[in-house]
Design a protein that fits this description.
single chain, about 120 residues, mainly alpha, Four Helix Bundle (Hemerythrin (Met), subunit A), 5 helices, phosphoprotein, protein kinase activity, coiled coil
Length: about 120
Amino acid sequence: MTSPNTLDSFETLVSLKELLNDDLKPIIVTFLKHTPITLNKLQRAIKAENTTQVKDLAHLLKGSSANLGLMAFSEQCYVIEKSANEDADYEQLQTNLASLITHAENLQQRLEQFIIEY
């Protein structure tokens, strides 16, 4: 598994940019807009110990990030998704979420720069 501190490669984004040209920008902007909202919902679901919602939200984030080739972020979402079960350790889920939020903040800066440069 990739370390949470590993930066996501933008190889897929570069390939998507070559394929989609300017149509990629709104996709990235949508990801940047919705990810913090979904993370906030995920945080509330973990606090409420709502395993179904935790799984669903983590799965949503996992898929949307994987579609952009952000595999390190996607893998962190996968860990949260799979950890949300009947025997869930909510303290560990909170720790994993804190790491995911930090990753998302760093990713946001890098994606904003990607939009500017490409």
